[in-house]
Design brief:
Elements: H1 2-18, H2 21-35, H3 38-55, H4 57-82, H5 87-110, H6 120-133, H7 135-151, H8 159-182
Helix pairs in contact: 1-2, 4-5, 4-8, 5-7, 6-8, 7-8
């Protein structure tokens, strides 16, 4: 029985290494049901879910954005409720701080392979490009916030609730512009081969 179980596991591992997409997932779930203990199944499922999550640029962007949102909301609460600054100025400052955190998270996690390296100047230029590219999303974000805080009714007028709506809409603008304008992949330089060396 043990040898059969071992051969089954080895056969599954060999198949899993060659299989991707829709064929990989059913085999993985079948493996969880038949080969592992409940604790191991839960652990493997969590690892697989994390692997799938971080394989997607957009999902990593969303995870970083969640962190940026937390920073944004925290700064808004500090400025408005803690320091007594008006909700409009507080929001403008919290957006800038949250965006800076998001830039750092994206260069570290989401688009790490394309992040600026080397001089401080290159990193500062990348930050400036990120802020400029995300200005569209920030304006949409702030616009929704402004409308809800100014003319919203009930709980929608709460600055913290209005921020959630603004961030949700601005996320899609920010991802698209960040991917294509700031952290875009650079194509290798074309080498001109002299005609005499061409075959």
């Amino acid at each position: 029985m043990r040898s059969q179980s071992g051969s089954t596991r080895r056969a599954w591992d060999a198949t899993a290494n060659k299989t991707t997409g829709s064929l990989w997932k059913p085999r993985l779930m079948q493996h969880f049901k038949t080969e592992r203990s409940p604790v191991r199944r839960a652990s493997d499922l969590a690892i697989t879910a994390a692997h799938w999550l971080f394989a997607s640029h957009f999902m990593r962007f969303a995870v970083v954005g969640t962190g940026g949102f937390t920073v944004d909301e925290s700064m808004l609460a500090l400025f408005h409720y803690g320091l007594g600054i008006d909700p409009y100025t507080s929001r403008a400052m919290s957006i800038a701080i949250g965006a800076t955190f998001t830039w750092w998270g994206n260069r570290t996690l989401t688009f790490r392979a394309h992040a600026a390296r080397g001089s401080v100047g290159a990193i500062i230029r990348e930050w400036a490009q990120f802020m400029a590219a995300n200005a569209v999303g920030a304006l949409v974000n702030y616009g929704i916030y402004f409308v809800l805080v100014t003319w919203g009714t009930g709980v929608l007028r709460n600055p913290l609730i209005a921020t959630i709506a603004g961030v949700a809409v601005g996320l899609f603008f920010n991802f698209t512009l960040s991917k294509h304008l700031v952290f875009r992949a650079t194509s290798p330089k074309r080498l001109d081969v002299p005609r005499s060396e061409k075959i």
